[in-house]
Amino acid sequence: MPKRHNAAWRSIRARVVATTIIIATLAVTFAGVIAYSLEHQRLEQTAHADLFTQYETAQMLNNRGRDPLTGAPFHSLDATLDGVVAGTISTASQGTLALHDGQVVAQSTNAPGFHLGRDTALIEQVSELAPDRSPRIHTITTEVTTYYVVTADMVVGHERGRLVFAQDRQALYKGLNDSYRTYVGVAIGSIILFGFIAWLAIGRLLAPIQVMQRVVQRVNDTEPTHRIPVRGDDDLSDLGRNINAMLDRLAKTFEDQQAFYDDVSHELRTPLTIVRGHLEILDPDDPEDASATKKRTISELDRMNLLVDDMMTLAKARRPDFARRRPTDVAELTDTTFEKAQSLGDRRWVLDDIADAEILLDPRRIEQALLELSRNAVKFTEPGQVIALGSDVTADEVRLWVRDEGIGIPPERLPHVTKRHVRGAQSSRTEGQGLGLAIVDSITQAHSGTLHLTSRLGAGTTVTMRFPYPREDTHESYPDRGG
């Protein structure tokens, strides 16, 4: 399993690096192609312009009819052609030829290795070209090279000759091609270096993901309490915090699940044993015994049903939809719950106070909690003793409480009574599962509230639920109303 996860992590790293290299390669290639195309076009336009300039110079010398070197008049076609060629400018890749009857009568002096007059295929092809009325670029390819060519026909008397202005195309682009071969080599080396650096950098950036993977694996295998070490405020840090929060919720879910199993094992065993015992000693031939056994069995089954309801409430307490909050009138909730609580037992019911406030609560759950507290109070009081309900509001909280004048809770047990299966003093005198205060505490926490208990042995207990109240408000106190 770890090897597979590490391979997956490396695969993510490789894919990110590969994508980055591809993007970088496309960018470098695009830039190189565009730059090469623009420079190629510029050189071509410059070469064409030079050829046209040579053509115009030849026409100008022909029109003057004088040798540009001696100033003497041209006395023949060959002299004219020779004089015009002498007046043109040649370069290492550009030159001029003068043809008369298909024979070279003059040519410009070029750099060593570039001799237009030796390329017989060029001479043959330009000799066959039709006269141009205006300068025009021809592209001619021979075994030697490829040329850009402009021709100009010269006429002296009855003789016709042809001037050929040629540009070696391969020589024209040689410097550009050499430069871009160097560019390609440098670009490839740069991309390889870039890929190496990207591999290291992305590996460092993805290192937290590898840490997260190892932590999750350890949580799955042997260490459910292990968490991701989080540093910084970037996206990966936020992801780590969210994963930790998720792991906390999962751990709490597992704890609640185990607690639910413990509740079922702990609480259902007794009533099931009682039912089994009654059924085992049942005398089916004795109607009175059968009727009594039936009543006792139904009583135990009812108690089991209540127990299951309590356990389901605790199991659901961590769910986000456990408390469906809505604006709730605290005074109305207090008054309604007080009326319902009076039917729980023959006690002296008192309404201490009523808060005039509205707060976001789930009224069904809060009523359930207050009635659970009232039910507990009935268990630990005698007929005629006081059980009081009330609510009030301050600048920053709303409080709802149930107090009684019962037997109270020993100080050493007070911090633990909200835990499951922990009961107060003399709990053996009452029936119950020890889940009541745990349910109330869960409901209170689901509303972002806190549960507070005060108690004195022989004087009674007060259990208060406190909920945040975000704005200042006032409340009215009403006189005590006896039940």
From TrEMBL:
Enzymatic reactions: ATP + protein L-histidine = ADP + protein N-phospho-L-histidine
TM stretches of this protein: 12-36, 183-207
MF (Gene Ontology): phosphorelay sensor kinase activity
Domain HAMP: 203-255
Keywords per UniProt: Kinase, Membrane, Phosphoprotein, Transferase, Transmembrane, Transmembrane helix, Two-component regulatory system
One Pfam family matching this protein: HATPase_c
GO cellular component: plasma membrane
Main location per the UniProt record: membrane
Enzyme Commission numbers on file: 2.7.13.3
Keyword match Isomerase: no
Name of this chain's protein: histidine kinase
Species of the source: Propioniferax innocua
